[in-house]
Fold each of these.
Amino acid sequence: MTATDRAVALVTTAAQAAADKLAQNIIAFDVSDVLAITDAFVIASAPNDRQVKAIADAIEEQLAEQHQTKPVRREGEREGRWILLDFLDIVVHVQHSEERSYYGLERLWKDCPEIALPEDAIASRNRPGDEEYVREPNEFDHVEAVLQAEADRSMR
């Protein structure tokens, strides 16, 4: 199964709205094969809380205007560090750059196909001058390596 045409249209509009508000590193994944609850994820980031909120507001406004759709759920508004907009067909994650680096959603969904985005959204990736946050290692980083080693051992 692949993302529906409606989901792809919503992704395109959301990505363009995010790019218009200078979101950074916009990417979209077709998650329809691995999740039953939605067809696509859009991920974008910003270097400060105010911009995170502005990007989420712009996405919501453009999807309402162009597709007559509103989110069924909006979470994270108060903190402004990670706002999730659930439109059923797509889920949009607008994250502060630090949260994006820490949680690494791209890593979780890297096996899913990317959805083509507008040129402005593609240009948002790794702009000169964009700050890149490096997450500090934590006590759980080794868990993934241990699980992979155990899986490899059980395959023998």
Amino acid sequence: MTSSVFPRRAFLGASLLLPLGACQSPKITTLSPRGDRLVRLIQRTGNDNMMAPEAPALMGITNEGRDIPVRQLAGENDSGRYVVSLVNIRKIHEFIFHRRQGDVLILHLADTKFARLQSVRYPRNAKPSVITDVAFAENDFQQQVAFWYARIPGR
């Protein structure tokens, strides 16, 4: 009789501890190491700002028609002014890289692994439109990302 009590108690103890093991889930990160460093750089040195909703809406980022709250960081070099915005409206970090080329603002939406998700052309006196020329969009995106890669600390 005592031999059957021990296995039952062991089974009962294991069944009580099993839910505790489920509470500890593996750490899942969506940030690449560079993405994480750029997020920290923007959070530490960037400025809070509001973006007009037209261009982000074409990228799938909406705030019910209101301006989009972002944290921005700007930099300049010989080829112009570069801005990166950290957006967290969909409860995940996303980057919007933008640069002015003449009277046109070129914006790229990217995840924190620096994968380009969408690109938009926004002329000064017109409505924004999605860039369908993939080669142009990817080339400009790579130029903007290279600018920020050079400024991310801890390379």
Amino acid sequence: MQPFNPWTWRDPSALAGGYDQTSPDDVPRQRPAGDGGDGPDAPGPGTPIDLTGYRVEATDGRIGSVTRADTGAGYLVMETGPWIFGKTVLLPAGTVARVDHLDRVVHVDRTREQVKDCPAVDPEDLDRAEYRDRVGHYYAESYRQG
């Protein structure tokens, strides 16, 4: 097993969606009414991915929504919900377990508490090496702790 790298997508195919395997007898899952589903169900190969607006789910419940997504740089910026007073946090790509494009949900492999305790983000910090090192270290430690 390779060591955890917070800034690398563990499974780049996670960006292509988290669909369950189906059989020919299965009834296709439909989009909820009124979701404005004008686009494709899931992006095809080479399609630019924009996760902005997707809900973010921790292992123990909803934690907020994506406000900025830089899949090339390997991170998502998210606004947490009112459960921690609307904190803005940086989620490295390595925390993403899967992405469900039909439901517009990013699933991360961290608990709400682990996300709540991460370093807060200032938009000007995103490109600073010291800040990214601090965030990367925090998530690498939380990965080791469980």
Amino acid sequence: MLLLRQKLLPNNIQEYSGLAVYKLTGEFSQNTARAVEAAGSSMIAQGQFSFDLSGLERIDSAAVAVMIEWQRQADKQNRAMEFHDAPAGLLSLIRLYGLTEQFQLTASAGRH
């Protein structure tokens, strides 16, 4: 994903080349899953289906479970979630669980 322009908007919404993207930051694990899921669900209810995962630092399998729930919510609205700049650790978990085809994912450039 080419990021030509970045503009900070309220509620962790960033604009990349005219596309509004919800940016998740920090820990996304069992410790934070409920709060992160609630925040993401709120964004989905508002019509936001594009999430930037590049700000995630600590990830475990709870992140995958929450992403599945977000995808279910989007499916109910006949929409697809887009997850941009997924960290390598998250991509590894998704591959491990055989869920690569479940999500629209882009890998994070330069993060391993």
